[in-house]
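Dear U.,

Please find below the material for section 3 of the report. The protein was modelled together with zinc ion; I have listed the sequence and SMILES used, followed by the predicted complex structure.
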Amino acid sequence: MPSIGKSITNLAGIILADYPLCNWCLGRQFPSIKGDSNEVKGKMIRKEVKVKTKKGSCFICQDSMQSLKENSAKILEQLKDYEFDDFLIGAKLPKDFMEREDSLRAKFKLRGGEAIKSEITKEIGKIIASKTGKRVNFRKPNMTILVNLVSGEIDLNPKPLFVYGRYLKMVRGFPQKRRKCRNCRGKGCSECEYTGFSKEQSVEQILAQNLIKRFDAKGAKFTWIGGESSESLVLGNGRPFYAEIVKPKLRHTDESEMLEENGIILKKIKIVDEIPKKSPNFMVKVSAHIKFAEEIDEEKLYVLKEKLQNSEVKVVPLKKKPFTKKIYEFDVEMINEREAKATFKCDGGLNIKRFISSSNSDVGKYLLEITPNVSEVIGMKADCDTFDILDVEVLNE
Ligand SMILES: [Zn+2]
Ligand SMILES: [Zn+2]
């Protein structure tokens, strides 16, 4: 055992005569001594001190350092349910712990010792690392563990997981996005099982339930690449989307897993590093059912096709900057003298119904102007009741 200098023994004696300290908090004040841990160092120093020391709970930590091992065991128990590669420990501590340590250090001119908080996180980190074989990561841990030694509270915060996937919608009649719970307006209540969302069927609701179950998570937040209406089908390769999985216990997915539920097919999803800040450029292939206010004929439809094929349309949203969208292929087939089916490929993000109806539509009449549009080109009121997404093509996917 290395010897401890007389000056340290003397100083320790003077401190301990008035301030009871636990071994951890004693050892921590003497960084020049070598030892496996501050607890070991504290024990060594105490052995050498021959004067009468004051009894009582530790002046700095009120003996909460004693619960370090017990809390680490509790953390290990809770961590069993989680998949993670690396972690970081954070400690919550009442301010007066630090204040008492600072005042003691000022009074006895104790320098260079580490702070109680960093000792706690370091020591717990060591235990967790040795028992789990995972390493501490200060920059981007996928598990952050917050511990309060005083209350014994442990908070596990797995980093969110990001996934990219595509879905097909084979049934009409429910929306893409879920609505906020009407009872609590999104705050979370017993009616919505504290999700904040209505349990009504929607693409989002079905996907969210699946992802939450798959990753044993608390929630899923979606970033859509385009949208469709309640009446639309989504076919082909499906519509792509990103999702943030909130507090996942699992961090892997079986590539072959596929879900089919209530007409929604979730194709294989992959885990990605992040959700891109800017939505990727994409094109959609659409099939739209059009109703005309007056009679049409093949000639009129031919003009429509010629005018809109390989064209550019200008979109003027209310109170926002105008932008353009390209129409690539455009074909239209007559169903009868009042109805036709248009099949076209265009830039993603074009409002399909408005592109067909213009401001003749009662829906969102003044919100958006698209020119040219089907109504305008054919010279009569045209309406789109349903459209289907035949495919979505993402550039650089
Ligand atoms: Zn202590
Ligand atoms: Zn609610």
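For the text of the report, you could mention the following: The first strand starts at residue 86 and ends at 92.

Regards,
Y.
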